[in-house]
Design a protein that fits this description.
Chain lengths: 222, 243
Amino acid sequence: MYDFNLRVLLPYWPAFCKGALLTLEISALALVISLPCGLLISLMRVSRSRLLRALGTVYVETVRNVPLLVVLYVLCYALPVYGVPLSVFAAGVLGLSINSAAFTTEIFRGGFAAIPGGQEEAARALGLGRAQLLALVVLPQVFRVVLPTLGNQVVSVVLGSAQASIIGVAELTYQTQSIGSATFRYFELFTMAALFYIVCVQAIGGIWRLLTGRAAKAPLGT
Amino acid sequence: MIGSGHFAAYLLLLLRGVVVTLELSLGALVIGSVVGILLGAMRSSRRRPLRLAALVYIEALRSTPFVILLFLMYYAMPLALNIDIPPFPAAISALSLHCSAYMAEVVRSGIESVAKGQWEAAAALGLGYRRIMRFVVLPQALPVMIPPTIGVYISTIKESSLASIVGFVELLGQGMAIRESNAGRGTADVLVAVAFGYFAICYSLSRLGRYIEGRSSRDRRAAAVRARPAAAPRWRFARRTLS
């Protein structure tokens, strides 16, 4: 029977915590970058300019259909060849952001699609311009529609951040692996890491629902 | 840049990688679907402990990064069970676990998409739970489940790229091996080729999913239109019995 021993790992506790903090840090950074970018690209995808729409579509379809790990490898191994040396930290955050922005774009686009066309006619009848229509009428409602789904995106960025360990960002997964190679206590370590992610993701989900529940439940002014 | 002499050989290697990637993820999808159907049925079961057990399984797996699952299978399980687990079994079991949680949600929402009146009507006709499931609910739920299943297949294909880090040579693994054999020269070319491979697979699958989704919703609308005039067949039946 395997002897499940956590005491051996006690001296490595600080490294584990440091990794966990870095996981939260790169996830937060990637979200801060990718949520506005996603909104911007989704605006491109609903714009009147055909070129902007096409650019947005190409970006979303390309990134959504290529694994995050390949994006991370391109940033980490291919960009330096063309004279763009990125630190692993920057490559990790950028890769996560590029990936998350594409999925966020699709979430926002779904939000735009949920706004009935009558709103535009009503706004025009009231004499609002296009910018006002967007800022005062459409966007506030889009935010309310997409809030619950954006919570899923926050979660999937945290889960995706584990892949940053592969290019050498010293976040939780990386730390567990390196502690494991020193102690050979892989079973305990990866179980602890899995528990950390589960608690983290469930907490994010719970807090998100708590914070956005009322906004999401309020009826749209249709 | 990679010498053009090797170009054909490398392309062949990458194509083999594409096939291996498709096989690995399809295997995981099939295993994951079987487990997922079981879990999805448990989620809509009348027994509370069954519902709870399925919920805990699904939530735990969906909140664990796939990398951790893979490492658990590849590094931790051999120690815990004192057996040797090669890269392929580790990769496919981790992928199947991952897949099963997502398929369970697909199955559950498919079952929930069948109107409650169908259950009640079938129960009124005297069918038990199993027969209702088999003859009434599943035949209606399965077509609804096809597009999201393709979605799960796409994300499984993308996650399967992580199998390369435990030494299983699929598409990305082939790419990294080619990169290694050239001592890092032509990295960008190889990675772009690998990315294009994933793009070609996933994009065509997602188009297929969208096509099926569009067609089935068109079918349902057409069926609703057809359902109205129902008298003609009966008249023909009557005439045939007379002659």
